[in-house]
## 1
Amino acid sequence: MKLAIVNGPNLNLLGKREPGIYGNTSAEDYFATLVAKYPQVELTYFQHNVEGELINFIHQVGFDIDGIILNAGAYTHTSIALRDAISAINAPVVEVHISNVHAREEFRHVSMIAAKCVGVICGLGMTGYALAVEYFLEKGK
Ligand code: DQA
């Protein structure tokens, strides 16, 4: 099974950024534990701060992998272009948020992408990424 984890803007600062909300673990450290935990999954990790680069990556992998686990960061709340990219590809996408966006500012309660995703995981910390991997494994190809 081939899965891609895609992180959007400011998520390169995980571990340093607002640790009270996002925790102390860097993305690199967490994804290394996921790779070790799921040797049966071919996991790719991509992070970018630029909306168009996220879209380019989704186009690039979205026709030949089994799923995408996407934390689009703040673009979640604004990006119709990312929503269209999710609609355009074949791979199913799970939307993940580390924090519980519904318990935060009102502008975070809206997701432009959720309706085009197979499901949404939020508020469970970094574990949300592992749970999304579990979903794809359980679902199978
Ligand atoms: C986030 C929540 C977003 O509202 C925020 O802009 C982020 C991170 C999360 O993982 O909790 O950058 O997607």
Note: The mean pLDDT is 97.
## 2
Amino acid sequence: MEIKTITICGGGNAAHAIISVIRNNFSGKINLFLPYGNEVAYFKKLIDEKRFITATIGDNKLYGRPDKVSKFAKEVCKEADLILIPLPAFAHEQTLLQIVPSLKEEAIIGAIPARSGFEYAALKILKDNNKEKVKIFGMQTLPWACRIKEYAASVNILGKKKSVGMAAFPHKITPKLASFLSRVLDLKIEPLPNMLTLTLANVGQIIHPGIMYGLFKGKEQATYQKETIPLFYQGVTKEIAKTLKAISDEILILTEKIKALDKKVNLDHVLGLKDWLIYSYEGSIADKSTIQTCFNTNSAYQGLRAPVKKEKDYFLPDFQARYLTEDVPFGLIVIKSIAQLAEVETPVIDEIILTISQWMGKEYIKGGFLEGKDIKDARIPRNYGMKNLEEIIIY
Ligand code: NAD
């Protein structure tokens, strides 16, 4: 696998972190694709002033800058061997639509993180553009938590995970790609057997909507002062932990049903929530006894508060936050649609989708079915022409 040029998409927190981390471990060319709004002009001006993006990771500082930046895919994607999409899932499709026509046949393109159903959109767009030789991959999560401190200048990287899962299609490229990504991202990348694992093992879809539901159900109109905004992960109560476990259990039941229907599919890496927390945050959890303590005593989660929006002199829960706009239509709803194909009931997931859709002003479920007016915007197999379970189990 010869990778000489890597193109990174977007100018968010994750893209800032990835530019600096990769620059320190990769001697090839790094391009940046910034199609969104007027970001490109802003980025170019600032990086020329600051010269580097400085990433602070513990006591270390890493410095990096892209070699070429453009708003146009043909200028930064044509020569790319590897394209990384570290963007919120709602930006995947429009980004892919711009990139794919410029890709060379040997290119590999992947989302970090994939969230659920990335391959449905990616494979359809590749097919529509006669680029079916292009390979795809997804990572299970972002390797760290990261926040831009100053745009095009500095980013803080915290809570590095012990290991992150990665699956590719076709599967045969997975080991070599995992080893390359592991080197350039400076992190253990665990090769996963298929992309369906990424969807079923997408923990963001459990944690984010689950905690939001627990914190705000019945308190939708609550108002907060800065210091009283609920802590997000440390705010997980016994009751919220019970809801999170119930979502995780429904996904595990679905996983078992798929395994029973297709004896060949390997879904052994789909872990229950508690097992995933302990596996991913081994060194940072002080008390591993329950799901609640895994959140409350995890140093990687300390101090992070629930998403809120400012109103006059107080704050309200923010129901347009990414924890919902990303993790419901690109998470729980994908699970619900696969569960329907596998004929598995998901009463807890249904209740959470229904409640949260109302908060978001969306309608995904109608009369118990995924027939609401906004279902066209969710990344469910049916929206990409896939109508049965066999079509989503690909290797
Ligand atoms: P972000 O909100 O910082 O990304 C914003 C960037 O995305 C923008 O600068 C723009 O370049 C691009 N963008 C936004 N909307 C777009 C659109 N409609 N079309 C094209 N581009 C668009 O996101 P992030 O924090 O870097 O997160 C990236 C991914 O990583 C998300 O899936 C997120 O859930 C996940 N993640 C992030 C963190 C973290 O700590 N930042 C932690 C875990 C997972």
Note: The first strand starts at residue 5 and ends at 9.
